Amino acid sequence: MDDTAGIKSMTFMNRRRFLLVSTATAGAALLAACGGSSNDNTATSSASTAASASTSAATSASSGSASPSSGGASTGATPQASAAASAASTAAAGVPGGKKIYRIGTPSAITELDPGHTTTEVNNAPQEALFDYVARYTYDPPLGNAILPDLAKSWDLSSDGTTFTFHLQSGVKFHNGDEMTADDIKWNFDRYQNPDTGSSAGPDWKGATITVVDPSTVEVKFDHPNVAFIPATIAYSCKIISPKVSQQLGDK
User: Fold this and answer.
1) Is 65 exposed, middle or buried (0-12, 13-18, 19+ CB in 10 A)?
2) How far apart are the C-alpha atoms of 23 and 19, rounded to whole Å?
């Protein structure tokens, strides 16, 4: 690994550490406040179904490359030709069923679009546009600190900070047409937790037991309080892909 790659990897991890430290500090105060009540077993998340939750399809593992289009002007083209090519490309992207173009500037090459294998920030950026989360940070540019529902319409946190219950949106489909269920979410959670996946978020899942309660409900129970789980893991690095497509295509 060259020094540049090492720096990007550290940047990715340092941001995660910041989220963990900041949310853990706030969470400690929350647990202290909750500890005095013996009647309230569950603290409901501030994320409610009234929020404008995304019901867009969870992107499958077979999503296309986010590399720039080859439709731009070639070397030596005139400004007029470049403008015309750009306009034509933009028009084509706006036609229903036409080619969709996503352009992103990065300090180095994008090397991995599978969120389970990502360890650097440069790979994280295009994945945020390709995949859905269970819950995700708002973008009010460039990045807000509020967390809104995405594939989950709401979630609950137990008063002891150990158990998270996610209530999923209904009618969400992967790009292959399969409807998303709690089993799909569990498969993704299990994959992140599995050390063989190599996810940078793997350690965040230590001590977790993942259970499908019903087709629209998933429970994650830790053997220790983990109040930073939503902001530092679920809404940051845990993007959801289609289990069927991943199993069919593997590394492709």
Assistant:
1) exposed
2) 6
Query: Of 192, 199, 203, 169, whose CA–CA distance to 243 is shortest?
Result: 192
- Looking at the DSSP bridge assignments, the partners of residue 51 are none
Distance CA 112, CA 120 (A): 9
How far, CA to CA in Å, does 128 sit from each of 23, 73, 132? Answer: 21, 28, 7
Instruction: For 44-92, write each residue's pLDDT tens digit.
Output: 443 333 333 333 333 333 333 333 333 333 344 566 666 666 666 655 6
Continuous H helices in the chain? 3-34, 79-94, 121-130, 182-193, 229, 243-249
Instruction: For residues 211 and 155, give the distance between their C-alpha atoms in angstroms, rounded to a whole number.
Output: 14
Distance CA(20)–CA(121), nearest Å, equals: 17
3-class SS shares of the chain: helix, strand, coil, % to 5: 35, 15, 50
* pLDDT tens, residue by residue, 227-249: 999 999 999 889 999 999 999 98
0.90 exceeded by pTM:
no
Gap between the Cα atoms of 84 and 93, Å rounded: 14
Tokens for 234?
Answer: 């679920």
